[in-house]
Design a protein that fits this description.
The complex is a heterodimer.
Chain A lengths: L3 E2 L4 E5 L4 E3 L2 E2 L6 E8 L6 E7 L6 E3 L2 E6 L4 E6 L8 E9 L5 E2 L3 E6 L1
Parallel strand pairs in A: 2-12
Antiparallel strand pairs in A: 1-4, 3-9, 5-6, 5-10, 7-8, 8-9, 10-11, 10-12
Chain B lengths: L3 E4 L2 E4 L5 E7 L5 E7 L6 E7 L2 E4 L7 E4 L5 E6 L8 E8 L10 E2 L3 E5 L1
Parallel strand pairs in B: 2-11
Antiparallel strand pairs in B: 1-3, 3-8, 4-5, 4-9, 5-6, 7-8, 9-10, 9-11
The chains are: A mainly beta, B mainly beta.
């Protein structure tokens, strides 16, 4: 069974629009960690955030914000006032037990001027 | 300053000709990982080292091998590349024990082309 679902394959927005990338996960563990990574066209995976399962507080970092809701097993990522440089593939990932990262299939975000 | 370095960034090899990809890190992290990422797919873990302990994923083909001569360096050897091995190969490191609390930091990747 897929453990991390990113249902949006591709999203296109115009610069300055807000955009939310969805991530739904599945786990039986009570302790787990969720991550978001950005992969620009250059290929490098850039770490954005890590959240543990006991911390449901939403987080804001500049134009980025994350909404973690255990009740719906979701960890959504919002970019406010998107910019062309935000164009990338964004991966949500889950780490649980003694396992390494399980990635979702990624969402490609295209921000046009 | 680059923290996880991969060389070369682009590698072209011929079908069946062995190839080695290199990864080095300046973070002094215990764990190093190798991922394979094919076009429009998520990264797939091939194996990882916790210090010198090698951990192979169950579905990693025998064609893929790895070496970690010291903390800083890790190599991916593809003994007989096939056309299906063309992909981006990503190296990552983490400072813990490879468990769920670790945050992995990735290098820029090596894009392998097999002719």
């Amino acid at each position: 069974a897929q453990k991390v679902t990113q249902a949006q394959t591709e999203i296109s927005v115009v610069e300055k629009e807000d955009v939310t990338l969805d991530c739904v996960y599945e786990t039986r563990d009570t302790t787990y960690y969720l991550f978001w990574y950005k992969q620009p066209p250059s290929g490098e995976l850039v770490f954005l955030i890590r959240r543990n399962s006991f911390d449901e507080q939403n987080e804001i970092s500049g134009r980025y914000s994350w909404n973690f809701q255990k009740s719906t097993s979701s960890f959504n990522f919002t970019i406010t006032a998107s910019q062309v440089v935000d164009s990338a593939v964004y991966f949500c990932a889950l780490s649980e037990g003694y396992s390494t990262l399980t990635f979702g299939k990624g969402t490609m975000l295209l921000v046009s001027p | 300053d680059a923290m996880v370095i991969q060389n070369p960034r682009y590698q072209v090899t011929q079908f069946g000709k062995p190839v080695t990809l290199s990864c080095s890190q300046t973070l002094n992290h215990n764990v190093m990982y190798w991922y394979q990422q094919k076009s429009s797919q998520a990264p797939k873990l091939l194996f990882h080292y916790y210090d010198k302990d090698f951990n192979n994923e169950a579905d990693t083909p025998d064609n893929f091998q790895s070496r970690r001569p010291n903390t800083s360096f890790c190599f991916l050897d593809i003994r007989s590349p096939g056309l299906g091995d063309a992909a981006m190969y990503l190296c990552a490191t983490s400072g813990g024990d490879g468990g769920p609390t670790d945050t992995q930091y990735f290098g820029p990747g090596t894009r392998l082309t097999v002719l």
